[in-house]
Write a structure and sequence with these properties.
Beta-Lactamase; globular; two-stranded antiparallel sheet; 7 strands; single chain; 164 residues; 4 helices
Length: 164
């Protein structure tokens, strides 16, 4: 099991998460996707190109997201759940999955921003209940039973059902 600042992910959950990230990377045509803790620690990645500095990317993305949350407070907004940086060759999209987990995506100019946003929103809908165990104080760990596992597999399939 992977443990990150109170986050407990079973091997089965990690397998489901990895499947979701791989499908998201494929359908969105992203180069690199990482699930990272809000403390900046990488949890898992899906990549078409090896990123030599995953730790720095995770840490800086989490820091940037934390700064964005402070901007939201200054603007008297409850929260911002998305961070986007556009570059000449690469773009960075950071979405909040849970209070403890962020989804970091890099993609090139050839990839449509709207497509990344659409598929990312759909992936977050599936990832959030899988990873968000903080609300259930009676569980020390989030366990997946067979019924939930089947539902998660169906949700992954449904997630990208309309992809060509």
């Amino acid at each position: 099991m992977a443990r990150r600042k109170g986050l407990v992910i079973s091997d089965r959950q990690m397998q489901v998460v990895d499947e979701i990230l791989e499908k998201l990377r494929e359908v969105s045509r992203s180069r690199f996707i990482a699930l990272v803790s809000t403390s900046g620690q990488p949890i898992t990645t899906s990549e078409s190109e090896h990123h030599p500095d995953t730790l720095s990317l995770a840490s800086l993305a989490a820091s940037s997201f934390a700064a964005t949350q402070q901007l939201a407070a200054v603007l008297e907004e409850r929260e911002f759940t998305l961070l986007f940086h556009e570059g000449h060759e690469s773009n960075l999209h950071v979405s909040q999955v849970t209070d403890l987990v962020l989804l970091v995506i890099t993609f090139g100019r050839e990839t449509q921003v709207g497509k990344v946003r659409l598929y990312t929103n759909r992936a977050v809908e599936v990832l959030k209940p899988l990873l968000d165990s903080a609300d259930d104080e009676q569980q020390d760990t989030l366990m997946i039973d067979d019924d939930y596992s089947l539902l998660a597999d169906e949700a992954i399939d449904d997630l990208f059902a309309d992809v060509e």
